[in-house]
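hey can u check if this looks right to u? its 451 residues, i copy pasted from the old doc so theres a chance i mangled smth
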Amino acid sequence: MGIDSRARARPGRSAAASARQAREVAEAAGDAARPQLPEFTAEESLAELRELAESAGAQVTGEFLQSRAKPDPATLIGRGKLEEIAGAAASAGANLLIFDHDLSPSQQRNLEEAAGVRVIDRTQLILDIFARHARTREGQLQVELAQLEYLLPRLMGRGVEMSQLGGGIGTRGPGETQLETDRRKIYRRVRHIQQQVENVRRTRAQQRRRREAAPVSTIALVGYTNAGKSTLFNMLTKAGVVVSARMFATLDPTIRAVTLPSRRKVLLSDTVGFLRNLPHALVTAFRATLEEVQRAALLVDVSDVTSPIAAEQEAQVEKVLAELEAAGKPRLRVRNKIDLLSPGEREALRDDAGTVHVSAVSGAGLGALLERMDEMLEDDPLQRVRLRVPQEEGKMLALIQARARVLSRQYHDGMVEMEARAPESVVRRLKAFVVEESLSQTKNGPATKKR
């Protein structure tokens, strides 16, 4: 059962109307000069909570949405609504209430006592999904670290056996001893996991340095959860990464080599999906994984073209990239799932310099995507050159065939004359055979000839 309580909504007004009014007031106050990021309405947020609950294996039996001027400090939603929810949960046989709002420890305890069932908030739900989907030791460590950091401030007040120290005589009970014992155990475990995660970061840094020693760039797939990144990754790399319609099916990073149309080899990285209000503890715990995004030469931002809240999802992606200090990196936007559109809608789509429309399921548009990735990759830029290579130089001819894109080829007097596009690192190795460097890079610009 998903429940949403919005502090910004006024009684008697829909949450969507309140969100629109808030944006209008902000613009009237002079904030219109700054770009206004689209926000989720309460209904959209509740629909996403439903998806999260189903991804965790829950069966949703009912939903409530309450508009309040401000949250109730004791129960978040107020006594009347709480009684209504408790009655509905009892009649439906529900054993769990999920709130689309962060709950304080006291609010969670009060809600459980009044409703008679277990209560969790959105952050706990996301942590549970992450714990279910983590497959590698690295992913499991990062999820456990986030769970323990979330649990620590919630140890206080979890019943008489963990009561806090009181202010009068006779209030120091055995519960305080148990609380401190549990805290020490958790702190020791947190320090142990942090050390292991740090070892993971060092190992990743060593692997990254080895990769960076060779002229091989990394391209990272980023985007909102369930946008189709893993399906696209599989189509481009044949990696066989687990694909699921459930949210956060991919937690463990996967890196595979891809050959671009220019014959350049790059590394493609599949990363964890982003989400609205992604818990900070998760972003911190998964920093070892998300460093692949920070180090990437190009970000491929994948989104679901069929999503009715694509603008809001894209705004959340921007926020997470800003937190990772990766918002300024070169980015190619990929609108995925065009196979779900009608023929007329697909005909209306137009690619541009920074956007490509694809279907990771049918393979439509993947050729254009690879071409655009090739053009936008700034590391080891492509050069267009004319070459004259003696036919007996089999090693050089094999290098050109393997690492360059041959545009034309002629044989004359024992020489192979060709025009090719090749990475700068390859052109340097072929310097003795370069007749003319006709275009310095693949980007549009004046041709520069050098004899």
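The chain is about 40% helix and 20% strand.
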